[in-house]
């Protein structure tokens, strides 16, 4: 797939051939959904908890006598049917971790990248560099590249100036190319890839696609 290469001003300065093994694979929506569910589940802490009737700090003495009141038989006010009592079948701390083979996770990434490429949602830039953090300058750059659409900017390596410039923008987010994940790929309208970050993607996803 041949796509234009733009500079930070939005002008086309060349073109580049995106590898078909990464950006032109058959899109498997079920696989992408499985990878997304796994990532969201693994992000859960699993610390939610309610107290059972045995954990309620109330007297365990019988509330009133068994017979002669005309009321139902109750042994304690910690029963779930009473206000302030325990919770029946409430959530308890547990792990939500889901497993998925690495080959499947990376295949899901290739599907997501292919879907973005097919929808003309990938913007390749020759370089993305700034001498000092400047949010207004980065906002102008993204406006020229993606317009009013939200954007995920991939970086090949740590860049304090670029990261600080993007951090305060509401419709943009930066991410290291080595930390590419299905959630962030599906969250934004456009994917901005400097050529240096594209090389990292090819190293991670390209070799495995050939095997």
List keywords for this structure.
7 helices; 211 residues; alpha/beta; 2 domains; 36% helix; Ribosomal Protein L4, Chain: A; single chain
Tell me what the structure shows:
- With 211 residues, the chain is α/β, with parallel strands linked by helices.
- The chain folds into 2 domains: 2-45 and 96-210, Ribosomal protein L4/L1 (Ribosomal Protein L4, Chain: A, 3-Layer(aba) Sandwich), CATH 3.40.1370.10; 50-90, no CATH class.
- The chain has helices at residues 20-23, 29-42, 102-118, 135-146, 160-167, 182-187, 195-210; strands at 2-6, 12-17, 122-125, 151-155, 172-176, 190-194.
- Helix 5 links the parallel strand 4 (151-155) and strand 5 (172-176).
- Helix 2 packs across helix 3.
- The longest helix has 17 residues, at 102-118.
- The protein is elongated and about 90 Å long.
- The model has no long low-confidence stretch (mean pLDDT 93).
């Amino acid at each position: 797939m041949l796509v234009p290469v733009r500079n930070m001003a939005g002008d086309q300065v060349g073109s580049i051939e995106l590898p078909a093994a990464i950006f032109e694979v058959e899109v498997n929506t079920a696989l992408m959904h499985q990878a997304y569910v796994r990532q969201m589940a693994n992000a859960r802490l699993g610390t939610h908890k309610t107290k059972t009737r045995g954990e309620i700090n109330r007297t365990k003495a019988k509330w009133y006598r068994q017979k002669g009141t005309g009321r139902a038989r109750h042994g304690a006010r910690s029963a779930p049917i009473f206000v302030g009592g325990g919770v029946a079948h409430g959530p308890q701390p547990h792990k939500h971790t889901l497993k998925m083979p690495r080959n499947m996770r990376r295949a899901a990434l290739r599907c997501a990248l292919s879907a973005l490429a097919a929808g003309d949602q990938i913007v390749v830039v020759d370089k993305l560099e700034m001498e000092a953090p400047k949010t207004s300058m980065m906002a102008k750059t993204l406006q020229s590249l993606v317009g009013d659409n939200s954007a995920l900017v991939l970086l090949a390596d740590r860049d304090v100036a670029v990261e600080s410039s993007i951090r305060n923008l509401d419709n943009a987010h930066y991410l290291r190319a080595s930390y590419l994940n299905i959630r962030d790929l599906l969250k934004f309208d456009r994917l901005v890839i400097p050529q240096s970050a594209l090389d990292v993607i090819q190293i991670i996803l390209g070799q495995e696609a050939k095997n």
